[in-house]
User: Fold this.
Amino acid sequence: MIRGLRTPVPARSVFISDLHLGTRECQAQELAEFLRHTDMETLFLVGDIVDLWGMRRGIYWPASHHEVLRLIVDKARRGTRVIYVPGNHDELARALCGSLLAGVEVHSEYVHTTRSGQRLLVMHGDAFDGAVRFSPLLKATGNAIYTALLWLGHYVNLARGLFGLPRWSLAAWLKSRVGDAREYVQRYEQVAAHEAKRRGFDGIVCGHIHRPLLARIDGVLYCNDGDWVDHCTALVEDRHGELSLWSHRPAEQAAELPTPELRKAA
Ligand SMILES: [Mn+2]
Assistant:
């Protein structure tokens, strides 16, 4: 686990998703720091960037969130190619697919070819929900429960902050421990990998479930770039086309999170 990414040479591409800007859960300070110190030829925004869905509960837009958008637009202006693939929390932006927004290209999905010639399907991943949500109960209650948990987690962390304890994610803890949720995550990973294989790609890059993972599943590369709510992670392709997952969380905090092992692709 490496804190930050301060590359002297630009990465070939960086993939981030599930920033959830516009909600209290977004780790905007860390994200801004990451963007300031990371240079890349292409930046992929893989959905759930500005949480328009969450903002229906009320507008939350502090300066740090604005700074993140400013840094992204600034990168586009300075020659970084920025590709935005909207997710379900920012699905309004899907109406803009095919257009250019402040130098940012908007696509419903994208095919990225790595330096080593691997063709990766880039999509947010909410399209797999229908195939994954096998339990009707989970389907009906999943979103409401998750929203409630995020809200509860916010207050748990306020209390932990008062006592100088590191941030803790109730939602991530539950997702990894509740049987139904664990099964959901595994099914999601299989369904996503299967889709890439079915369509003849070498792998898939997605987000959506807030579980960073770089693994070979069913013969294809499954890359989930994680999120900037709990994990503060990015998928990075270096100049040679090698993919790896990076976490911007200090190791001692990251160790508290029930994340799967972050590892380099074989
Ligand atoms: Mn999503």
Observations:
- The pocket of manganese (II) ion is lined by residues 47-48, 87-89, 124, 126, 208 (CB under 6 Å).
- The longest strand covers residues 11-16.
